[in-house]
Amino acid sequence: MPDIYTHVINLPDGIWGHSNPNPDGSYTIIINAKLSYEMQRKVYLHELKHIYNRDFEKSDVDEIEYHAHKEDWL
Length: 74
Prior knowledge:
74 residues, alpha+beta, 2 helices, 3 strands, globular
């Protein structure tokens, strides 16, 4: 399992969060601090899904998001 660093910071309205691979093989998840705790939790799980599905190795963003929203981890 890779190291995953999570930061909760103020992001522009409409941006809930995102995740990025790091050069050392770890990942960083950024979550919008303006969201409710429950929404932050959902965003975190959504971003984890991208990491565990190895979505950063894929190129079709529409397909990635389709599958990320298809199964609800909650």
